[in-house]
Design brief:
It contains 16 helices and 2 strands. By secondary structure, the chain is mostly helical. The chain has one domain. A two-stranded antiparallel sheet has the order 1-2. β1 and β2 form a beta hairpin. It is globular.
Length: 388
C-alpha cells in the first residue's frame, strides 16, 4: 500500500548480488571497521607477546588466533550485511533465543577462569562468552517488539521489550557482569526513546538506575570492590588501572616508540580490556584520536542514514546497534583513563577475543545491512514528490 501511494525508486533489473551490495553499502563505515581491525592486529603484535612468553607459547600465538577470529568476523560481517531487514530480524531473533538459553546454562556449565565472574563456556581449545552474542540479538528482538507496537491494533510490544530487558539484565547481574547489563539497559533505553517513550518515564529511568546500582553495591562484593577502587583518591600503581594510567601519561602526544612500551609486560589484560593503554604508550595521543574518530564515523554515519529510513523496525534496530557499538568503545576507553569503574569490556574489533570479535562482526554486519540504500525510497524522496 505504501508503494502504491508514494511510489518506489526503480530497481536495476538483473543486477548481481555483489555489485548491488557494493553500490548500496555504507563504504565509509565499512572502511572504518576494516581500519579498526588492522589497528587491533598492529597493537596485538606488541601487547600479546608478553602473555605468550609467560604461557610458554610462540611469540605471535595470540596474534595468529586474533587474525583467524578476525577473518571469521569479517566474513560474517560481509555475509550478514547482504541480508534484507526481514532476514536480519529472523537471524537476530534466532540468535537471541540460542544465546539466552546459553546464558541460563552458565551457572551450571560455565567457568570464570579465575576472574570472579562466570561468563564463559570452556571447550579446552577455545571458550565462548554467550553475552557477547546476546547483545545484537537482544537489540533486534526489542526493535521487533517496539516496531510491532506502532502498528494498528498491534501487540503491547514496549511492555514485552521491557520484560525481556529485565530478564536479560537479571541473568547478567547474576554472573556478575554489570558492564554488559548496563550496556543492555542503555540499548533498550535508547530504542525506547526513539520509539516515542513518555518523558516522565525517561526521567524516572536514571533514578531506577541509581537505585539498582546502590542495591548491586550492597549485594555484590565484586561490584563494591570495583566501585571502591574507582572512587578512591589514590591509585595503587600495582593495579591494572595504575599501570594503564601511567602508560597513558608516558605516551604523551607521539608515544615512546613502536615496541618500546613497558605496560604490556605488567598488565595481564593488556591485549584485551586495556589495549588502548598500549596504543597510548607506544603511539601516543595521535593513534588514540584516530581510533576514536573511526568509531565516531561508524556511529554517526549510521545514525544519519537511519534518520532517512521509513521502516520503524529498521530505524530502531539500527539505532540500537550503532549506539551499543559506540558506547561499548567509550566504556572501554573510559575505564582505561579512570573516567569509569572497571567493567571488563573489550574494545570492539581492536581487543583480542574470539567471542568479542566474532559477535562484533555479526552486529556490524546487521548494522551495515540495515543502513544500506534501499529501493523503497527515503522520507526526503516522499516529501519531494508530494511537493510537486
Amino acid at each position: 500500500m505504501t508503494e502504491m501511494v508514494f511510489g518506489t525508486v526503480p530497481i536495476r533489473a538483473g543486477e548481481p548480488v555483489l555489485p548491488r551490495w557494493w553500490r548500496t553499502i555504507d563504504k565509509w563505515a565499512l572502511a572504518s571497521v576494516l581500519m579498526l581491525f588492522c589497528i587491533g592486529i598492529l597493537l596485538g603484535l606488541a601487547a600479546s607477546v608478553p602473555l605468550a612468553e609467560k604461557n610458554g607459547l610462540p611469540p605471535f600465538y595470540y596474534v595468529q588466533r586474533q587474525m583467524f577470529f578476525g577473518g571469521v568476523a569479517l566474513a560474517a560481517m560481509v555475509l550478514v550485511s547482504m541480508l534484507s531487514p526481514v532476514q536480519v530480524r529472523r537471524l537476530g531473533v534466532l540468535g537471541f533465543a540460542v544465546a539466552f538459553v546459553a546464558l541460563m546454562l552458565l551457572p551450571i556449565f560455565g567457568t570464570d577462569f579465575g576472574k570472579g565472574a562466570v561468563r564463559w563456556f570452556s571447550f579446552g581449545f577455545a571458550s565462548v562468552q554467550p553475552s557477547e552474542f546476546l547483545k545484537p540479538g537482544f537489540v533486534i528482538m526489542v526493535a521487533w517488539f517496539m516496531a510491532a507496537s506502532q502498528e494498528v491494533a498491534g501487540p503491547p510490544g514496549k511492555v514485552y521489550s521491557f520484560v525481556v530487558m529485565l530478564m536479560v539484565v537479571a541473568l547478567l547481574a547474576l554472573q556478575p557482569d554489570f558492564g554488559q547489563a548496563s550496556l543492555v539497559l542503555f540499548s533498550w533505553a535508547v530504542m525506547y526513546f526513539v520509539a516515542g517513550a513518555p518523558l516522565l518515564l525517561m526521567s524516572v529511568l536514571p533514578v531506577l538506575a541509581v537505585v539498582g546500582g546502590f542495591a548491586a553495591y550492597n549485594g555484590s562484593e565484586h561490584f563494591a570492590r570495583r566501585i571502591d577502587g574507582f572512587l578512591s583518591t589514590d591509585i595503587d600503581p600495582r593495579t591494572q588501572i595504575g599501570y594503564a594510567t601511567n602508560a597513558i601519561q608516558e605516551g604523551g602526544f607521539f608515544g615512546v616508540g613502536v615496541g618500546e612500551g613497558t605496560v604490556k609486560w605488567s598488565l595481564p589484560d593488556a591485549h584485551t580490556d586495556f589495549i588502548i593503554a598500549v596504543a597510548a604508550e607506544e603511539y601516543g595521543l595521535i593513534l588514540v584520536l584516530v581510533i576514536i574518530a573511526l568509531y565516531a564515523v561508524v556511529v554517526v554515519r549510521s545514525l544519519i542514514r537511519l534518520m532517512r529510513e521509513r521502516d520503524p523496525f529498521t530505524r530502531l534496530a539500527g539505532t540500537g546497534l550503532a549506539c551499543a557499538f559506540g558506547v561499548q568503545a567509550l566504556i572501554n576507553m573510559g575505564v582505561a583513563v579512570r573516567l569509569l569503574p572497571a567493567k571488563g569490556m573489550t574494545l570492539p574489533f581492536v581487543s583480542y577475543g574470539g567471542s568479542s570479535v566474532i559477535a562484533s562482526g555479526v552486529a556490524l554486519g546487521m548494522l551495515l545491512a540495515l543502513t544500506r540504500s534501499r529501493p523503497q525510497g527515503q522520507i526526503s524522496d516522499i516529501l519531494a514528490r508530494r511537493g510537486r
